[in-house]
Fold these 3 entries.
Entry 1:
Amino acid sequence: MHFHSNIKLLRKRRNKTQDDLAVVLDMKRSTLSGYENKVAEPGMEVLLQFATYFNMAVDTLLRVDLSTLSESQLYQLENGDDVFLRGGNLRILASTVDSSNEENIELVSEKARAGYTNGFADPEYISELPVFSLPFLSKEKKYRTFQLNGDSMLPIPDKAFVTGEFVQDWSGIVTGEACVVLTLNDGIVFKVVENKMAGEGKLTLYSLNPMYEPFDVRVQDIREVWKFVHFISQELPEPVLPENELVRTVAGLKQDVQRIKNSIYGK
């Protein structure tokens, strides 16, 4: 539980002494000191007092180590963009930066997929992932690369590396976009997304390969969403097809994409 260190950090960020905050919360300074120094444990009424004053959810004060967050994340929290309160605007993201304080692109290889499902929110685990950078991507956004496993998104091949842009506000996910989604039960999946969060509290996920059926993921079972940016494949392109066969192949791909669109939009 991070309550004790969190309230001390937040108090100092507001330039308040223990005396100042004790007066505001109508408690003795010694009581507040006891909470900050982990000598005393707060009851629910006290937790609600602190949550109201700092404009954060009790869950955030208890479960999130605020000292590990970036300045921008703390600023968002302090201005009301709390995932536990608002249901979607802020996602706590473990990340790494290079020597110039620029965001790295962490690489989640096929071997790291299982570990990532459990360690995605652990800064120590994320710091051990390989990192790289791509100069043509925006420095204002956060990216991560995941290695695919399987053929559900053909023609993007098995073992390709898919880079995604971190999505903080899931309500803004556009139906028809491809996303890497970290799920509670299915781990890392790469799918075309239908956003049903507003009405039904879920995403419906579609494969490009027609052999795979779509399935739903409830919002409470989603951990991260990364919007597709590009992919890199180690496979060489197939030999040039004869003109007629090429036409048939392109037509088949168009039909696959149209089938998914029709399924999403109910046409």
Entry 2:
Amino acid sequence: MRVLVTGAGGQLGRDLDAAFAEHAVTGLPRDELDISSEAAVAAAVAELDPAVVVNAAAWTDVDGCEADPDRAHAVNALGPWWLARACARTGATLVHVSTDYVFGGPPGPSAPLDATGARRPWTEFDLLAPVNAYGRSKAAGEELVRGTLSTHHIVRTAWLYGAAGHNFVRTMLRLGHAGRPVRVVDDQVGSPTATPDLAAAIREVAVSGRFGTWHRTNRGSCSWFALAQAVFALADLDVDLAPQPSTALDRPAPRPSWSVLDDRHATLAGLGPLPPWRDALARVLDELGELRRPDAAPGGVPP
């Protein structure tokens, strides 16, 4: 099976290449394929003629998107549309990676509630209500894919990190080794997700024939502050760590306060659950050579 991965230069791209290793994979980073160019997308898909296209290309600079919503729309909305149109012409399946940031703002609630009034995770069927330009561009990309190509999978995920690229976990390690005080927000809650686990889940979805929208994250949830605590505990770093509110950062783009995604629809439909986030974190730290206390993760480090 021929597979085309867009955004192959990003942190997810490397793990997608490994996940599809048994297939003929072509990975195109941004400097080889700018998905905001309809002509470039059409030419690449026509030439390579893949059975599956995995779109891991996106502009994920949330504050940058707020400052330049036109660029955000071109990459995060029009790019997936051009891919969906190209796939429709060649008969390919499209797997489009989306985000928890499509939720959490007006006119919808900041978090959905269960029958007891407690917060529950977002499902695939909850109202989309992004709080920022990045989320709006990703929501638009989802709708354009749905309206264009029946053979699509939209995979929403959250709080991605891995052994490659720029991400929160690697930033915490850098700050921890630098010995400086670290302040992290504790009023945003989500589902940290390791790129190796997401890549494997994307491969499972891609060959499942179960088209539609899926939530795929590591199981469980925590705040950014709790994630930082876990990083420092597993790496056995003594860090002056303290919580702070989101308002202390004064960022241009607001962030959703509740980004926990529900995987019930996916697991009941036969897709395998992803491992708990803390076990996944230990595996990534081990890959980075930073794991010092595997006993700090429940069950230690999975094989």
Entry 3:
Amino acid sequence: MAANAGNANSAPFHSPLISRTEAFLMLGGAALMLSVAMGVRQSFGLFQTPVVKDIGIATADFALAIAIQNLVWGLAGPFAGALIDKYGTRWVSLGGVCLLVLGLSIMGMANGSLMIMIGCGVLIGLSQACTTVGVAGKIAAQVVTPSRRSLAFGIVSAAGSIGTFFTAPFGQIVIGEWGWRMGIVAFIGLALIMLPAVWFGSKVDKLAAGNAARGSTQSMSDALGEAMSHKGYIVMSLAYFVCGLQLTFLTAHLPSYLALCGQDPMLGAQALAVIGLFNVFGSWLFGWLGDLYRKRTLLGLVYLTRAVVVTVYFITPVTPASTLIFAAAMGMLWLSVIPLVNGLVLDIFGVKFLSTLMGIAFLSHQVGSFLGAWGGGFVFDMLGSYDRAVQFTVLIGFLAGFAQLLMDDKPTERMTAAKMVPAE
């Protein structure tokens, strides 16, 4: 299972073309941007109950808005990735921040399901495609040396996870004291913090331009053809569907599930915060392990362990203690897939079209997110229970884990040949 353990620990961390200070400013900007974007996105479940009661829409309507958000995010991901790969990260990310503010504003003024669908669904979905994993991954890949990229992805994801730890309790406090519309105003304030983060993180664009000038001459169409013919990439992308379904089902419906179980509304926010806190450690850990051991094996184990953890939690009595333990366990496994998936894409195809290929794989993730958000609400409205949705989540988790363990992770012939020349 070990893979380049000796080299990973001794190699320099950042590109020799920039200083340590510049490297950490760029990575810090990427982490802060990802932190706020993901923190806001993963806290929308807190709004479900108050919004449904206040404006008189069905639970499935709100769940559909979150589902649309995730589907739009996935559909826009490859296009945002292509723009990033061609033009850089700055203007794409700034556009994403503007879309986030606009989407939150429309959601905050909503008086029916249509405005929720447009604001929370379409516009925020577009913003996520421009401000999250595709951008942060591209920045990290350019800043650090090739042998430390999995760790860099883990560090950025870990720092990004802090957003959920603070955003969920902050949002619940504002919602509880002043209502859900003021909660939206508070989230708009958080979104504006992303502007300086984008500015610092996108300074990597100059470095990326220099690397591109010296790097591969492969075209976009060639890269897409290469990816679509790689069976391992297809398996990994299909398994990513399960990741999206599991995580969005929990963020969208765990607060409501806890309310059904008679728990305090704050427990849902606390659980999301604990997920965010432990995700810091999980993302760093699996990023570090990804530079030492086979990434496909680690990824398969993440999916299998998630399925076990979900099974244990939902078949035992729900208490505050069991919920927070469950949140801690899931947090360790939450965004830990990002450094592993990003690392696999890099190992197989290289860095030039990283954002595009990650965006295509992430589309599968977001189709799963759509089903997790909308399907969970649909099942609940039809059956009055989340039981069947949980059972489906567990079953496909086991299937994805075994498929991931067996995937072909060999680099392309082009990448194998490139190892004969200096690294990118």
